[in-house]
Fold these 3 entries.
Entry 1:
Amino acid sequence: FKDPLQDPALAAIFEHVHFAYNSSLIKGDDNTKIMHGIADYMKQHPNSYVFIEGHCDKRGPAAYNFSLGANRSNSVRALLIQEGISPDHLFTVSYGKEKLLFNEDSEEFQKLNRRAQFKIFEKQ
């Protein structure tokens, strides 16, 4: 699996999906657009497999955040399945608050930590 952010064409498709505090619901036009773009990409590339990572901000107990991160990655997976993507091509993991993008306390930075991000594999 590779990080799509290392490839400009893939980075434009596999952007981070962001979540509200203490939520695993996928909301907002930006997130909807990202999810449709990922689904479209996967439909056009049937040999692609996606690893969905669930992440949280640094607040709260580690066990709770691992659960919330799992709920976030599974919400993304469920929506992609609803969009017609094979469940066999979607894998999930939770990192909770273990892989923060930012360690700052401001809400602006905490919001960026609450995300699902992706790794992709293209089977030859």
Note: The first strand starts at residue 17 and ends at 18.
Entry 2:
Amino acid sequence: MKRPILAAAAAAAALVGACASTPSGPSADVIAAAAGQAAPDAADFVRMAGASDLYEIQSSQILLSGSQDEALRRFATMMIEHHTRTTATLTAAAQQAGLAPRPPALDSAKAQMIRDLQTADGAARDQLYRRQQIMAHREALTMHSLYAQQGDTPQLKRAAASAVPIVAQHFNTLAAMPGGESGSHPGH
């Protein structure tokens, strides 16, 4: 049991090392906007973070099934790799905290986003994927930064803190892509 936990911790450390330790650019604005909100409790954080990672993985697999946009394909490949690792880190942290996390499951909103991606195609799918990713990363960055600051479980606070620079890097990458922040208003 200790080996998977240590492997997840090592993967998290490698990801954090590859990303900027202090978020800057558009991601710093998201974190600043989250100030004053309350963090979820441990069980809700584990559930929401798992749903977020699962959405990132599934939506990126859909994008890879048909997109010709090389920048988006590289981004989607990175999403699958990074969010698989953040799920492992979160699961290990939850287990260390004495929780019994369930396998990640999509909430109804993210399930609808997946269905929308599945029915779109071509350039319309690429554009929808980009808009959804901006929104999903804004939500994830807010959630992880709040939990890292205010969370009620030390092991999960560390996992959240390790995810912040990763999600911030993803958000900044999306913001720099053509169309970047244009589709990122909170209601969409």
Note: The chain has seven helices and no strands.
Entry 3:
Amino acid sequence: PRRQTRYLGIKMFSLTPEIIDALRSRVFLPYSISKGVFVADVIPRSSAERVGLRPGDIIIQVNDRDLESSADLMKYVQE
């Protein structure tokens, strides 16, 4: 059977220490955030928009599992 690919509806990138430092110099970013996924854009009428994700959001967990990178997010969504 063919496996269905899930579509998130966001453009994202993994947070690196350099990106976190750059974000902290521009906006308030809690020091507790040291990894995760930055939501750069949300596709109109996508599942992400329907659940309330917005550009600038930072996703740090999915189903109580910490995210290290955008690859983790994709892996957890595909499960």
Note: Residues 17-26 form the longest helix (10 residues).
